[in-house]
Design the sequence.
């Protein structure tokens, strides 16, 4: 099978798996593994799987995500996030939707500082959801 044919078959297989409601990560894994297997053989696919698993697990970009989640939990448990939201509400609480706008800006600032949008979404989501509910924001807006 040529590489172009394998690519087209892989894309179609990915769409079929997604229509069958297979999670995206698993669907991409299955299609990628089978594609490498069909083009280069089973030994190449399994060795690539082992080396990529180690490479991704030891990458500095992914190692920091649990640390940012820990930081968000510490901020939430110690009450630091509550105090920050109280201060933000005192400053811009009179503006309609001001706290929601401050949350978006805070999330953007945290993403710029951390360099990871995933870590920012996880950390700020943990902190902001409870605080926005406390100030009676609509849950559809909070999430």
Sequence:
């Amino acid at each position: 099978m040529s590489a172009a044919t394998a690519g087209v078959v892989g894309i179609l297989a990915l769409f079929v798996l997604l229509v069958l409601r297979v999670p995206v990560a698993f669907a991409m894994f299955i299609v990628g593994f089978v594609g490498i297997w069909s083009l280069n053989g089973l030994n190449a696919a399994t060795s690539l799987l082992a080396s990529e698993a180690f490479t991704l697990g030891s990458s500095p970009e992914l190692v920091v995500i649990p640390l940012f989640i820990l930081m968000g939990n510490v901020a939430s448990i110690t009450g630091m996030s509550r105090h920050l939201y109280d201060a933000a509400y005192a400053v811009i609480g009179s503006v309609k939707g001001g706290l929601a706008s401050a949350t978006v800006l805070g999330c953007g600032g945290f993403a710029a500082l951390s360099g990871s949008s995933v870590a920012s979404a996880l950390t700020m989501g943990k902190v902001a959801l409870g605080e926005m509910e406390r100030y009676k924001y609509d849950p559809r807006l909070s999430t």
Observations:
- The first helix runs from residue 3 to 19.
- The chain has a mean pLDDT of 82.
- The radius of gyration is 22 Å.
- The chain has two domains: 3-57, 60-142.
